[in-house]
Amino acid sequence: MSEKSMSEKPGAAVLELPTAESVGGQRMVLNMGPQHPATHGVLRLVVELDGEVILSVRPEIGYLHTGIEKTCEAKFYQQVVPLTDRVNYLDPLSNNLCYCLAVEKLLNLEIPERAQWIRVLLTELSRLNSHLIWLGTHAMDIGALTVFLYTFREREEILRLFEAVAGQRMMTSYFRIGGLSMEPPLGWLHRVAAFIHGFPEKIDEYSNLLTGNPIFMNRLKGVGYLSAADAIALGVTGPPLRASGVDIDLRRDMPYSSYEKFQFQVPTSTVGDTWARYEVRLVEMRESTKIVQQTLDGMPGGPVKADAPKIVLPGREKMKTQMEALIHHFKIVTEGFNVPAGEVYQGIECGHGQMGYYVVSDGTAKPYRVHMRYPSFATLQAVETMCKGRLIADLVAVVGSIDIVLGEIDR
Amino acid sequence: MASQPPTLSGKQAVLAAMPDHPAIKALLAWKPDALSDAKFDFGELTLTIASREIRAACSTVQAAGYNFFEDMTAVDWYPLAPRFQLSYHILSHALKERIRLRVLLDEAEPSVASIVPVWPGANFFEREVFDLFGIRFADHPDLRRIMLPDDWTGHPLRKDYPVEGYR
Questions:
Q1: B70 touches A at CB < 8 Å
Q2: Could you tell me if B91 lies within 8 Å of chain A, comparing CB atoms?
Q3: Helix runs in A167-237, H state only
Q4: Where are the domains of chain B?
Q5: Which of 2.40.30.170, 3.40.47.10, 3.30.460.80, 3.30.450.40 would CATH assign to domain B8-110?
Q6: Can you tell me the ipTM of this complex?
Q7: Domains of chain A, each with CATH number or no CATH
């Protein structure tokens, strides 16, 4: 990313805003959502307006609250994995990964290298999936409808790849405690290679549609400025934090699942506006492509499940021929497995930012407490800081640029 | 099995093993009594703080380089006493390291000082704990239910609240 392509003045207004006096000082409270296409779900924003100028924004959430954390306490450890898909349904494999890593930390399980690499491959595809949806819907909010059709074309292929390994397009549950649910089908890595080979061109295509587009640039540049200090104070993570100039990415700085073996750049920008967040994510997509390519080039062989018969379900063949395997299968399915008492926190970098799972075990087969830290929940608090004193139309651009998913906010 | 990181339990053991840890050093320099217990387990450091000191302790670790408030939640240990545990996860961008501050609260009128003055980003997290556990945060700017409707009865993440809800 060249320095020149970014907006020159951070936080500079593109349009002259009317002052509070010039609009007659008439205050109005406007309910945006919960049913509004630009809120990406069921987000309700209570906006106080003076004319078109925003005085305050209060997010009201909880319309999608399903009590997943409570449900987890009533399930066996392995039964929680499918629940995690449903939290951030646009980045399902990152959810699986974060939960599995946390429980594996409690169990002190060693995961085979091949499983770790396939996990990296799939979470990067999942990040691309998340970023593609963000790009399509964000551009659509701004009024560039075409981009949506382009990004969903590639997303469709990613979903087909998910379907091929997991049997499900969105609720994959492909990662299991102790590895993967099964070996990917024959020829699947070639399909990934074919997709990844053509993907950088597709990013150029999106970039051609948007980066030079004057309407898109005017709507984004100088809008929704967030300083690095504000971003840190408000708990903002991921691309919005890096677009504000804070160079932190857990994949590089606190590596998990063998991320330390891959070379990639962490894009940052010091501009901190909506445009910077757009640029950072575009570069991130390119970097994800590189990581996937590296996993394909060096994919190790070996098993995809840990050697822990009391935790990992045996293969079908083994189960039908070996007595112990049958017993273990029966025990795991009916009674689960006990996890040593303790508490762990596992943070990973998902498409939206830092995701974290806090798992507390009391030594039984069901988690005592599972808490999920999701990036959108914290980032939503920064909306008011980004929009105060700006026009209401900017609110749509800002909400689009922080890339929220209500499933992970409300849980 | 992977090599297990060593487990240290008890304040003395942790202090002896990691005397140069920036968070521990800062807390001891500020108020040694506030640090009531410590644990190093699964490669994670847990520091138990006296409940009335949590806000000042957060300021102290913030000054010691733990600049990013990452997560905060509660655990209900019903029927044990003290019943509630609050876990704050604080990340240091410079040290690339995370610590957990822990506060224990009694069942009767659980209340603790809000850390919103230190990290405004704790706002929603504290509201969530208030909503789902019924723990109050003194001086919180906007302590309302966040997930559930305002007229909801009970706090669902408490252990004496049935998973299916009250029928």
A1: yes
A2: yes
A3: 188-210, 214-220, 228-233
A4: 8-110
A5: 3.30.460.80
A6: 0.91
A7: 3-60 (no CATH), 68-410 (1.10.645.10)
A109 to chain B: which residues are within 8 Å by CB? Answer: 1-2
In Å, how far is A191's CA from the nearest CA of chain B? Answer: 33
pLDDT higher at B128 or B33: B128
pLDDT in tens, A41-94: 788 888 888 888 888 898 888 888 888 999 999 999 999 999 998 888 888 899
What percentage of residues in chain A have a pLDDT greater than 90? 45
Cα–Cα distances in Å, from A38 out to A12, A357, A411, B142? 24, 29, 20, 26
Instruction: Tell which residue, A214, A219, A223, A143, has the closest CA to residue A390.
Output: A223
Output the six-digit token pair for B103. Answer: 């506060």
Tell me what pLDDT residue A290 has: 92
B124 contacts in A (CB within 8 Å)? 377-378, 380-381
| Residue B86: strand pairing partners | B74, B103
Whether the predicted pLDDT of A21 surpasses 60: no
pLDDT at A3 over 80: no
The answer to whether A340 contacts chain B (CB < 8 Å) is no
A2 touches chain B (CB under 8 A): no
Contact B71 A345 (CB under 8 A): yes
CA distance B55 to B39: 20
Provide the pLDDT for residue A406: 86
Flag whether residue A46 sits within 8 Å of chain B, measured between CB atoms.
Answer: no
CB distance A242 to A248 below 8 Å: yes
Does A6 have pLDDT greater than 60?
Answer: no
Contacts of A360 in chain B (CB under 8 A): 75
Yes or no: say if B134 and B160 are a contact pair by the CB < 8 Å rule: no
Q: Which of B42, B73, B149 sits opposite A371 (nearest CB)?
A: B73
